[in-house]
Amino acid sequence: MKGRKLMSLGLAAVMVLGTLAGCGSGSSSGTADAPADSAGAAEATAEAEGGEAAGETEAADGALTYASVVLGETGTDLTATIKVLNHRTDMLQDSYPGTSWAEYLDAFHETYPGIEVDIEGITDYAQDSLLRLQGGDWGDVMMIPAIDSSQYADYFMPLGSLEEVSSLVRFVANSQYGGVVYGIPSTANAQGVLYNKKVFEQAGITELPKTGEEFIADLKLIKEKTDAIPLYTNYAAGWTMGAWDAYIGGTATGDSAYTNQKLAHTANPFSDPGDGSGAYNIYKVLYDAVAEGLTEDDYTTTDWEGCKGMINRGEIGTMVLGSWAYSQMQAAGDHPEDIGYMSFPITVGGKQYASAGPDYAFAINNSSSDDNKLAALIFVKWMTEKSGFSFNEAGIPISTADNDYPELYAAFEGIDYVSDDPALEGEEDLMSTLNADSELNFNSGGDKKVQAIVEHASNGDMTFDEIMEDWNAKWTDAQELNGVEILY
After folding, report:
1. pTM, full prediction
2. Which of 171, 177, 341, 406 would bridge 149 by S-S if both were Cys, CB 3.0 to 4.6 A apart?
3. Counting runs of H as helices and runs of E as strands, what totals does the chain give?
4. What is the pLDDT of residues 358-412, one digit of tens each?
5. Which domains are delineated in the chain?
6. What's the average model confidence in pLDDT over 13-17?
7. Is-contact 287 457, C-beta < 8 A?
8. Which has the closest alpha carbon to 406: 335, 350, 330?
9. 416-418 and 353-358 as β-strands: parallel, antiparallel, unpaired?
10. CB 209 within 8 A of CB 347
């Protein structure tokens, strides 16, 4: 397998674990649960893979769980064919420069020759996966789309208790409901900004920006001194605009409780706090960049696939996306060394933070046959613990026994990672309700509201403060409709 799992970055590992582990469990951009860095977690994984539990395929109550599968022993003689619904269509292409699905499956079949895996890729996964889920025609494994966690049990196989699974897997809290886990993250991301190092050098930028004002000033230097597009919005793809929501929690506040516990109870959360922090100053970066002509000439013509080669070639200076995009930009051309990743330019009380949490999570169809459920769980666990997928995709490792971090995280030295706490008991569905009633849909497919920022900034028909006032009004109406107590 053409993997890129080459080295252990001790500094990055210590940095990430030391900060994330202290931030509690929860979600960042709709994601959750802090990494565990305990000897107990590593020992639990080691025991499950070869200790006294070897050979056990079921939990004590007879239910198949994530912990009960022992890779290399469980199901090695199983014969089954499973379908996996996935958003990574690029990995299905022969020309994909990273580790392709074909290469992963070849490695998987070395241990499990009787389990055939059919990968079906969907380009517009966010929308089409919902239709497939509701129609029931999606196979055995899928990446969990944006549905209420209260619906998980309707569609997905339970994988074990939160306590049990979180001892083996990082970032699972947002794939659980009622203390039961239904999904295993495929990888995990930090939230920051992609940039081209050579473009920054040509523009004379010697220090990475730490505030919105500094970032806008740097974008102006890029426009003045290079031919690159300073900030590429990726407006046309839609889902790429929703990425901006991922920064309004830990990145903008430094508070692990903000996204899932405090936001719902905050009065006018999109007002300017006056100190350069908060959601207001996240979205203001986008508005100001567009209003000042620091983005592409025509936002309606942006091209998601095309932008990868563009930033690799130095035709784009920056893009606001999670760290999951780093490896794709590196692989898109002949200049991977020019791709950099930095924290979002916002400072809270003199310090920078970065939200961190899982990407899409694997879930298993609760209507699949028993053999297919077992085969699917084996595949998911293999992808998590053996494939190197998260490392290859520049992600934070998912298995608690894995402390091997990609190189890009070394650039976050001195920056605390924040993994959002889960919702309070009894309020698990509150954010989903407020999102739906306000129609703002933060971290839940709210692409259009962020696209509207680009539109109004370009047209000059609505000031940024007017946009934020509109959001505050919608949020307040939703709070009042649901009788939400204002605490902050």
Report:
1. 0.73
2. 177
3. 17, 15
4. 999 999 999 999 999 999 999 999 999 999 999 998 888 899 999 888 888 877 8
5. 39-185+358-413 (3.40.190.10), 190-352+421-488 (3.40.190.10)
6. 31
7. yes
8. 330
9. parallel
10. no
